[in-house]
Amino acid sequence: MAREEELCWSTLRATILASSGSTCLGKVVTHPLDTVKARLQVRIVAPSVPGGSGPQFRGCQPSAWDFVRSILRQPRSLYQGFPVAVAGALPAGAMYLTCYELFRPVCERRLGLVPAGGGSEHGFASTLLQVLVPSFVAGLGAEAVSCIFWCPTDIVKERLQVQQDLKLYTYSSSWDAVRTVLRQEGAVGLYRGYGATLLAFGPQTAANLAAYELLEAVARRRLHGPGASAGAGGRRPLPLWVTLPCACVAGCAACLLSNPLDLAKLRMQVVRSQRSARHGAGGVKTTDAIFRYRSVADALVQVARTEGVAALWKGAFFRCLCHVPQTAITVGTFKWLNQ
User: Fold this and answer.
1) What is the Cα–Cα distance from 130 to 217, expressed in whole angstroms?
2) Per-residue pLDDT tens for 136-160?
3) Which whole-number Å values give the CA distances from 257 to 127, 261, 324, in the listed order?
4) pLDDT-derived band of residue 180, with 50, 70 and 90 as boundaries?
5) CA–CA distance, 291 with 268 (Å, rounded to integer)
6) Largest CA distance in the chain
7) What is the pLDDT of residue 83?
8) Which residues are paired to 49 by β-bridges?
């Protein structure tokens, strides 16, 4: 019994270290792209409306690519919010990937999807069910737990990234942002949009890991034979040159599908609470008022109505550029280190 407990703790410790290191590495490499994505998503270019000009927004540029080029000419601004992003990624990333690794076998057993004998005898459809369902459910559960850390980190990071465009606050550092939010909005301010965060990140990360597990199972079948695609006993390590492409493809698909939810989540998080909001001079609406969405569904409807349906995928290109390598580095490195 003592030997089993020692092995269990050793495995858990290795999982925590691998998840922390891989998440931190992914953030270091891709943070500038995440900043460009965030600043694009809060940029409003409303279509012309007869008898009115639509929402007025400070810092609006005529061309999205002109806006991107102006951002790239300010290299220091690309790392706004970087310290808090890395600091938050360590516990949040460790909790997410560790919970996922713990939840997945439980989901397999509870759903009755563990293949008998550790083999895979029923073809692709059976493998699809055995891999996707427990991976998706485990991903959602892990996200619900890790959002305890992700949400405050995300709010501070995003506000620092977009503050020079919104001009609603002037935080001097990550710590100043945390203190100001706590003073002006209370502890609830750090969990603003928690439901939106869970709704945006949950399906994305769950779909991401589920797709990765499916691609990994297919790759394992090709490399090691049919009996190696399922079952804990049949899981043989895959080389890094296989795990990274699998993570890239899974990450790209998940990013494109969940971009509207991410845009709604970000806009709900970067505005202040109602008591801290203010209106511009002359009755011009500021972003606090423009982004005053009641829910994620209301945000999606309002964005589609005022800016066009295509606006729901604003920043999707840079989001893929950011999250695909980040996911590839994080998931691929985690799997490789954990194996």
Assistant:
1) 10
2) 788 888 888 888 888 899 899 999 9
3) 23, 9, 13
4) very high
5) 6
6) 77
7) 87
8) 52
Other Cβ atoms closer than 10 A to 144: 14
Sign of CA dihedral 164, 168, 171, 172: positive
Instruction: Tell me which residue has tokens 């495995």.
Output: 11
Query: Would you state the structure tokens that stand for residue 282, as one six-digit string?
Result: 């002359």
Four-point Cα dihedral 15, 16, 20, 22, nearest 10: 0
- pLDDT number for residue 179: 92
- pTM of structure: 0.71
* Structure tokens that stand for 147 in this block: 């959002």
* Contact in structure between 124 and 215 (CB atoms under 8 Å): no
Residue showing tokens 């999707």: 316
Two tokens, residue 181: 């939010």
Distance CA 135, CA 139 (A): 6
Q: Which of 339, 321, 313 is nearest to 220 (CA)?
A: 339
